[in-house]
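If you are new to this repository, start here. Below is one unmodified record pulled from the training split, so you can see the exact layout before writing a loader.
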Amino acid sequence: MSEIYEQAVEIMKEVRENVHPETGNLLVVGCSTSTVQGSMYGQNSSEEVAEELYRALMDVFGEGYDIAVQCCEHLNRALVVDRSVAEKYGFDIVNAVPFKKAGGAFGTKHYHSLPDPVVVENIASKANVGIDIGGVMIGMHMRPVVVPVKLHKRMIGEAYILAGCSRLKYIGGERAQYK
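And here is the target side for that same chain:
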């Protein structure tokens, strides 16, 4: 398990170092603990793997970021956030509590780790940083314009990792100037 934690910290540090802070600090994370272990989605959900990945997430992004964790398809990709985050961004809270078989081990871990957890139906494409552990499709939660974060290491366990961040839109024409 320590190898999963170490791989996750390395990747998450690389993501944090390469994001564009001018677009905000809302991080969305999607995670399949099954794929980390080399299984199909939802076939081998693991609280132990979730614990190691969550510890890495908090060690790297716990300070300075609002974190939304995407639940699995059984909760329609709803997200777990702290109530303060839902209120800050104006997210609509729904009545659901994730558990291992409906929400996933990682979403459940986040829910039970927050001081005042809630589930929101969506985050209105406001996330400016995203980490997808195992191909669980977090793109719908990202704020345009999303650019990929190139990672030197691309796997945690057996799961492929994709990461992205938002950049400010370029508007104007040929006479426009940009920072």
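Two things worth knowing about this chain: DSSP finds five helices and nine strands in the chain. The first strand starts at residue 26 and ends at 31.
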